[in-house]
Design a protein that fits this description.
By secondary structure, this protein is α+β, with helices and mostly antiparallel strands. It contains 13 helices and 23 strands. A hairpin with a 5-residue loop joins strand 22 and strand 23. Helix 2 packs across helix 9. It is globular and about 75 Å long. The structure holds glycyl-adenosine-5'-phosphate. The site of glycyl-adenosine-5'-phosphate has 19 residues, from strand 10, strand 13, strand 16 and helix 9.
């Protein structure tokens, strides 16, 4: 089954509601760079916090790190990025467009979009040449080859070069891991599909250092753990699939690699959101050779020393955020109403705003009571206060933002000191004493539950 292509609808909703804007839009935009607006930054922060909790806080065998973006240029020689991190590029001399030589089948001729590059009579494609994807800049005031540095194309190398620092500082014993979240930059030839492939993006990477011989066992464990993490974000099971790298796809250093793919729908279909790789001891060995510093782990208890193998889990924060947006978007008919509704059915833990607070009218003390409640709730959750327009429209605006709970203060509220909680997914309602609202919402959030359910009230 091909799922519908929702990217265009999503790009427009993302801009209208303040999830994601094109970078430098007033100047015509920057190629494949995006800015996260008020709702987007909360959503992406929630994704990153969930990853950090699962990978670092809830485990005692993974340590956190925040390495710098700019690194010694020799790092990229050792890692193989200077010589090998390139894509084959062809130029069209007629229309000046550039394409990846290995992806011509997926590209369209700008002069005739029904054709592939090379198929139009005017096309003049050059021979492929290798194009390095790293962004280069200069450190210090002199622009010469000795001062070249690169914007990191992956966060992983910051972890490899700090392997012994972290191990010695924390006294961790192998097997253990190091995790970090940070920006990475790639001068992609064919970026696109909104935030799917961009030139500036964020990675959440973890390198797990193990004794050689135990690596495939750990590889299987991490594969399973990472799929579970994606399921825990609320991504549909049948939109997720493993893809095993074939011999041809495997990087030269990798012993085994699986992608976790998500079905984005339309022509994009199933695409990688995360890679789980067995990188052997390639990276530590390369850095040991290039730096002339011993990077061996000393296993005193067993009187052994060795270069650990590395199981890597590498996921794009932006790509997962896109998967969450695609997975969440739904258009629904509403019984008894002509207009349907657009709902972002986020998992409640990921929702940028947890509750909307709405006085039914602007009189009779309702706004004052609603503002008092919103201020109290804000100490615990992101809350949005809205008194403008018909209540139905206010609910719809929060449905589009993915807000799981709507709290309405009506004429009875001021008399009885209670409110209505309306649930995003089934639009069911319950009545709750004002003093209980924060507690009831916490219970629903902890239970990941966004349907009216009296068991969670009392
Ligand atoms: N350290 C291994 C590594 O970087 P990768 O497969 O090149 O592996 C890992 O990247 C993840 O980073 C991908 O699964 C994807 O989620 C994300 N990613 C890579 N390039 C990206 C880009 N240009 N834009 C957005 N995300 C990207």
């Amino acid at each position: 089954m091909t799922r519908p292509d929702v990217l265009d609808a999503l790009v427009s909703l993302a801009k209208r509601r303040g999830f994601i804007f094109q970078s430098s839009e007033i100047y015509g935009g920057t190629g494949s760079v995006w800015d996260y607006g008020p709702l987007g930054v909360e959503l992406k922060n929630n994704v990153k916090a969930r990853w950090w909790n699962a990978m670092v806080r809830e485990r005692d065998d993974v340590e956190g790190l925040d390495a710098a973006i700019l690194m010694h240029p020799k790092v990229w020689e050792a890692s193989g990025h200077v010589s090998g991190f390139s894509d084959p590029l062809v130029d069209c001399k007629a229309c000046k467009a550039r394409f990846r030589a290995d992806k011509l089948g997926d590209a369209v001729c700008p002069r005739k979009p029904s054709k592939q590059p090379g198929e139009h009579a005017d096309c003049q494609l050059t021979e492929p040449r290798q194009f390095n994807l790293m962004f280069k800049t200069f450190m210090g005031p002199v622009e010469e080859s000795a001062s070249v540095v690169y914007l990191r194309p992956e966060t992983a190398q910051g972890i490899f070069v700090n392997f012994l620092n972290v191990q010695q500082a924390t006294r961790q014993k192998v097997p253990f891991g190091i995790a970090q979240i940070g920006k990475a930059f790639r001068n992609e030839i064919t970026p696109g599909n909104f935030i799917f492939r961009t030139r500036e993006f964020e990675q959440m990477e973890m390198q797990f250092f193990v004794e050689p011989g135990t690596d495939m066992d750990w590889f299987e464990r991490w594969k399973a753990a990472r799929l579970d993490w994606h399921l825990g974000l609320g991504l549909d099971r049948d939109r997720l699939a493993f893809h095993q790298h074939t011999e041809k796809e495997l990087a030269h250093y990798a012993r085994a690699a699986f992608d976790i793919n998500f079905d984005f729908g339309g022509t994009l279909g199933f695409q990688e959101i995360e890679g789980v790789h067995n990188r052997s001891d390639f990276d530590l060995r390369q850095h040991q050779e290039h730096s002339s510093k011993k990077l061996e782990y000393v296993d005193q208890a067993n009187n052994k020393r060795y270069l650990p193998y590395v199981i890597e889990t590498s996921v794009g924060a932006d790509r997962v955020t896109l998967a969450i947006l695609v997975n969440a978007l739904r258009e629904e008919a509403v019984a008894g109403e002509q207009e349907g509704r657009t709902v972002m059915g986020f998992h409640p833990a990921l929702a940028p705003i947890k509750a909307g607070v709405f006085p039914l009218t602007k009189k009779d003390g309702q706004p004052e009571m609603a503002e008092r409640l919103a201020a109290a709730l804000r100490k615990r959750f992101p809350v949005f206060y809205d008194e403008a327009g018909a209540i139905g429209r206010r609910y719809r605006r929060q449905d589009e933002a993915g807000t799981p709970f709507g709290i309405t203060i009506d004429g009875d509220s001021t008399a009885n000191d209670d409110v209505t909680i309306r649930f995003r997914d089934d639009m069911g309602q319950i009545r709750v004493a004002t003093s209980q609202v924060a507690e009831v919402l916490s219970r629903y959030l902890e239970a990941d539950h966004v349907r009216a359910d009296s068991r969670l009230v009392g």
